[in-house]
Amino acid sequence: MTNLKSPFTTLLLLVITLLQTSITAQAQIDSVGFLEKTEATIVKINASVFGIVPDNNQGQRFIAQNLPARLQSKDTKVLVSGIIGRIPPNVRMMGTPFQITHIEPIEKSGNRGSGRTGEATTGGIKPPKSDAGGKTRTITGKEEKELMRPQTHSVIKPPPKNKTNNMLNNFNFDWSNTTKQLQGVVQKRGGNLFIIKTSAGQYAPQNLPALYQKDGMKVVVTGQTAPPPPNVRMAGTPLKIETIGVNKLANEKGVVKKLSEKLYVIEVGNRRYIPRNMEAEFKNDGRKIVFSGIVEAIPPTSKMAGAPITLSSIKKQAPTSSKAKTRTPEKRAKRWWEFWK
Q1: What share of the chain is helix, strand, coil (3-state, %, to 5)?
Q2: How do residues 29-47 score in pLDDT, each as one tens digit?
């Protein structure tokens, strides 16, 4: 009679190994689902990027950072398991992020590969050999103990954990570009994807405040841009916002007013602004100034003494000349009786 203990322990080992790997990997990726022992095909996207396409869903393509180098070959058939990640906002990728937890090649004859170093296997333990009569022999106690021991050393290790668990941290943006000022309109592109469209092009902000996530809102932004990461299609040029507002003022004349011990505002006609960064020397009630800056939006649930403004420049108004102008008398024609004088 065939002993069922061997296949049962082997299956239990696989479950334990996959469970351990899944728990570890979940901490590394913002998962939205799992793929379990699915036959798939390796496809070549470009010279350095390979994707994984499930045979039962040709419209789906996964991009895995830990695909073994020896399997990076076009039309390679594999059996794969792993964690399906979430595509970050404002990013268009060549495929869905994927973390491999188990992968092995499938040979043309339909048999699976032997499991080399780098793929998830049962730890390299060979199944019990058949005896001379073709029957499966009973495994020994030592072999059973070895099978039950977790073989985590042969499972693919996930990428290093990101400090903020944010998929965008996987991209090394080069923020060395000079800070620039942009004027444009916020546009919603579905879900939580927002871009800023300007006359010069589209920008994908990485830190757009919730107050400005409104379709059609006009904004003025200062920030740094970076080129998109290789092999990634984004909705626009990456943008790291430094300041953002709804209006830009340049060389505006106003008067400083003191509302309280710590609150000073700038009045321009019937408009009032609360400066975020006004220096102490200008905090003098009644002082006339010339200033420039970006006016920020007022939160809909807040009552403020004025619109917040981040100043880019400020100076005292030049004093006006006090010298009175001499008025010259108007020339007129002489009257008829003045000719007799």
Answers
A1: 15, 35, 50
A2: 666 777 888 899 999 888 8
